[in-house]
Amino acid sequence: MNPSPELLRRLLRAKDRMDAHPDQDWPVERLAEVSAVSPAHFARAFKQAFGLPPHRYLLTRRIERAAALLRDTDAAIIDIALQTGWTSIGTFGRIFRDITGDSPGECRRRAREATDARSAIPECLVRSAERPDLKTAVLEKRRQAEAAKLAPPTTEVS
Amino acid sequence: MSQGIEVIGVYVRDQDEAVAFYVDKLGFRVQADVRNGDYRWLTVQHPEQPTVQLGLFKPGPPVHDAATAAALDSLIAKGAMPPLVLKVSDCQATYDALSAKGVEFIQAPIRRYGQVDAGFRDPSGNGWKMIERPHKETP
Q: 20 to 30 A from B86, CA-CA: which of A34, A41, B48, B55?
């Protein structure tokens, strides 16, 4: 059964909280409390409503924010990692690369080279437009990339 | 101005709740509130912008069949409706005033590139950005 609009509105509130503070820890229990549902119900309903599990949604927000900080500030990468909720720069770098295809350093260089023709769009909306589209789990994405590398070249059969 | 946009609508889950929010909390004024059977044409306007009306419409018959209305109700509640932007002269002051009235802010004011923006939702889930543009220096 589809979640009721009342429940969806409360799930949106949990999503909004992650948007506002992606650097914080958001265990399912905490999110469930915001939505006033049980933790087990929350995880299932959130995924049904927004198409991805809550922790993966949080990941997209952290990467989005990290990318913005890399682009817009001169902060050290370690500081950006800490500001966006990671406790290890190694994990941050690896996951950032898995998701965006670039290391944080490459992302910064690339962003600086790109010309800026976006000022007509409100900044907050630009950011959500640049949010990574994380349809699959990060590990799955990594597996697929490796499989693609290892797959033998296909030949066209005429 | 003799031509231009007159009404832009948003969908809401409950028109009484919506009018209470837009009028009592945001300070808009009711421009039209007309009923025709179950249908209610309800628009509000910003006190400083009398040429534009914001329609507060509830999905449902006779405009929508039950399945379409249910789909719209879900989308509204998920915050999937298009972005809305309110221009304010002092984002922080407006944020303080609206917060005190119980408006659900989803983003506190942030200053970036000379402008200040914040975000809130109406009770239905429609997301508003509130933007204070950079003040032009007077020569």
A: A34
